[in-house]
Write a structure and sequence with these properties.
Largest sheet: none
Radius of gyration: 28 Å
Strand content: under 5%
Distance between the termini: 92 Å
Oligomer: single chain
Shape: elongated
Number of helices: 8
Number of strands: 0
Length: 199
């Protein structure tokens, strides 16, 4: 990776807006969940956006997190944390692929550089929130932590109506259709004719 200098002008404004989206309170909740989900051996980051980024940057903790939720296709975690940049980015990419396979919507998934270069840590938070919400919704016994930390996603509530019930529904006129009670065209004149005023 090339070293990037400070940004100026519009680039600086855009980066400042992106950084404002980062939520410190949400960071605390996510760290608490990851530690509960993966075990205390993952440690805790320094507080703040950069501490959170450094904690997740090599992809090991993210791999442990997704493996603790889904054992169907485990992410390979090396014995020693990778030191080479491309290996760390590859580890993050494996987490992202596994998260998508787990059910996280593609639009909720961050890009590798968002985490690795700390371009958009709020996107990383959104991905972890989506992952937590999905784990709470699945309710398969793999989730560890307080279920109130994440929103439970809506689930399908399928209803099966018999043919007779469907036919009865066609006979009901809803109030959205309006009603023709009390409405008449009495006293209306044809278009273009002046109103007749008789004195």
């Amino acid at each position: 990776m090339a070293n990037k200098g400070p940004s100026f002008g519009l680039s600086r404004d855009v980066q400042a807006k992106i950084e404002k989206k980062y939520d410190d309170e949400l960071e605390e909740r996510l760290v608490e969940w990851v530690v509960l989900q993966c075990g205390a051996d993952v440690g805790r980051p320094e507080r703040g956006r950069l501490g959170f980024q450094v904690w997740l940057k090599n992809g090991i903790i993210l791999g442990k997190l997704i493996n603790s939720l889904s054992a169907s296709k485990p992410v390979k975690i090396p014995d020693t944390p990778p030191s080479m940049v491309f290996k760390q980015m590859e580890q993050i990419a494996q987490f992202l692929k596994a998260a998508e396979d787990y059910g996280v919507v593609k639009t909720d998934i961050f890009q590798t550089v968002d985490l690795f270069e700390a371009k958009d840590m709020a996107a990383v938070q959104r991905t972890l929130m989506a992952l937590g919400s999905l784990a709470v919704t699945k309710n398969d016994g793999q989730y560890r932590g307080d279920p109130s930390w994440f929103m439970k996603k809506a689930q399908e509530n399928r209803r099966d109506f018999s043919d007779s019930q469907l036919k009865e529904g066609k006979n009901v006129i809803g109030l959205q259709m309006g009603s023709n009670q009390g409405a008449s065209q009495a006293g209306m004149t044809g278009y273009g004719r002046p109103r007749q005023i008789i004195s």
